[in-house]
Amino acid sequence: MRIGTPWESCRGWFDRNCGQALSVVYPGFCALLRDSVMGRAVNRTLYWYLRSNRGGDGSGIDSGIILSQAALELLASAYLEAQKIKMPARGRTADQLREVLRRLGIPVAIPDALAGLQEGQRQNCWQDGPEAITRIMHPRRKLPIKLGAVVPNAWSLARWYTELLILRLSGYSGQYSNRLEARWVGEVEDVPWA
After folding, report:
1. How far is C-alpha 128 from the chain's CA centre?
2. Which of 117, 120, 146, 171 could bridge to 28 as Cys pair (CB 3.0-4.6 Å)?
3. pLDDT digits (tens, 9 = 90+) for 8-53
4. Residue 157 and residue 170: Cα distance in Å, rounded?
5. pTM for the full model?
6. d(C-alpha 71, C-alpha 49), whole Å
């Protein structure tokens, strides 16, 4: 079954004006796919990530968030296992994701570009990005904000985290197109851990 179409364009980490980035990330990415613990998780994560990117088609971005969160949970769990990091048995998904992001130098603070999520943070719905993504999908109580402004932000944030995790785990430390900030082709910045 096809999960993409050749004529489809989608925002992501890769900027077509910086084609050399692919040749830099490719060897590390191939090694990551061959890793005995991480390889299977990354393969499944990519499948869900690609399906999530098509969230605007078909069943909508709600399904995109679900797929992105599943990808993040799987990737975080595999990383913790590979690094032999023990988390509390009754730990929350947000805690696991936060731990992995921090260890890999990926910011957990809600980026300025995501005003809806920042408003939720001001209203004490969540403390950071990992909690925002998981709280929207698993609310313990009714959220005091309108989800209309929050859902697209959470979808973008989850896909951004997925891209950064895969780039970091592949050993990439160059420039990328930040899906949350880039406004035009050729607008790139250093990855957060560089």
Report:
1. 14
2. 171
3. 556 778 877 888 888 999 999 999 999 998 999 999 999 998 888 8
4. 20
5. 0.90
6. 7
